[in-house]
Write a structure and sequence with these properties.
This protein is mainly β and about 475 residues long. The chain has strands at about 20-30, 30-35, 50-60, 65-75, 80-90, 90-100, 105-110, 115-120, 130, 140-145, 145-155, 165-170, 175, 185-190, 190-200, 205-215, 225-235, 245-250, 255, 265, 275-280, 280-290, 300-305, 305-310, 315-325, 325-330, 345, 350, 360, 365-370, 380-385, 390-395, 405-415, 415-420, 430-435, 440-445, 455-460, 470-475.
Length: about 475
Amino acid sequence: MKEYIKGGNPYMPLWEHVPDGEPRVFEHNGEKRVYVYGSHDIERSRYCGRNYVVWSAPVNDLTDWTCHGVSYETHYDSILFAPDVVKKGDTYYLYAAEKFGSLIVVASAKTPWGPFENPVETRLGFDPGVLVDDDGKVYAYWGGCAAPCYIAELEEDMATIKEETLVSNPLGHSTCPWDPRDDGHISLIDGFFEASSPRKVLGKYVYIYSKRYEKPVPELGVFTPNNGFLSYRFSDSPFGPFIGGGDISFNGGEILRDAEGLGVMTYPWGNNHGSIMEVNGKWYVFYHRQTGVNEFSRQAMLEPVDVALGGDGALYIGDIKYLNGEPVSSRPVEMTSQGPHINGLDAYKWISAGYACHIHGSALRAHIEPRYEQRANVSTPVVGITAGTTVGFRYLQFGSNSPRTVTAALDRHQPLTLLVRLDSHQGRVIARLDFSDGENEKTASLTAGVIGKHAVYFEFQSKAEGEIASFDRFTFS
């Protein structure tokens, strides 16, 4: 029996929904693993949930994730928003966002997966991020939308702010559409929105955050207010001033080009939150994407990123452009289906449609249907498909010998034709599958050989109106 792909993008099982993921590499009992701490979207009709869970993977295999179970339960009968975890000495500290993020408590444990206990109330605020510096000093960063961001050093208790160190609004604030009160900050068209995550990279203090654009970003298909970006600025001091920087990731999917050369998003963007981490000598950005028509079933994503320090002291993070060996600019890395499978998903395993990074052309806003059943081989289908919809996956690995056939499975459908295209949503057709009534799985021969790494797209054609299919999975043989 064929195996299902695991650890793609999303890298956790498709039934799990952990957004806001802060990655940390910790060595415990002689083993180095990357741990992810985030919110837990289990309420289904609103953000987050009433507990946190911890997932981890060995640093040499980011496709092999283990769940350590619940690490913290709410102590206030409330929803828990985005947390952070750091280690100092032999103790791990969880900054839990109780009461919808309005009360930050710090709890502790002797293992990176908890359980985190004995919560102590702090005066930190929304979306806390914490940095333990090389000299042992600890800095907290926080803020979000209706209030500016803040930075302060913490006392040895990891909870108390050193009042004389408090810095207000070091980044400049974005607008806040649901709380337009004037609290004295200057609203910027590309300012800080939420999701503080401080890191130290190549000797620089890096403030990673969610940026809200109120201006067009035409090359990425952004023409309305948008906070699907994970961005950064950097400084020589933990308190700033923070300069430069750019955008590391954007969760709007593959970006196409229209007839005028403008960008076109192919995935439903939504809020973004995460950070970067060096894992086994390579840098990655950990972020999240949406699935359905709301933001209540978000999933953990990752992509490799490049990190470089310019001769002028500027720090570049993302997809970096070099000139004569010197970094000169960076842009967001692409959103992919492969995630940690950096050589491409194995084309000869079952690949769930839930790994799509391109869903385009539907009249019904096709999207990935969330699933919550905690079982092996759960697949998340793409639903809302209408005639002309394309569903794409970047990237698959076919190896050195071409497959002969492709098989696709649909949960339900009208009579339709499914074209399999290579490299782009308008690329050459390498197979055609004609589905009649009652045929939920179909195999067709390839009309051309395919080797190596490629993007693959499925184009749905039909004369039927409305929803014509629910796309479950596919494989090559």
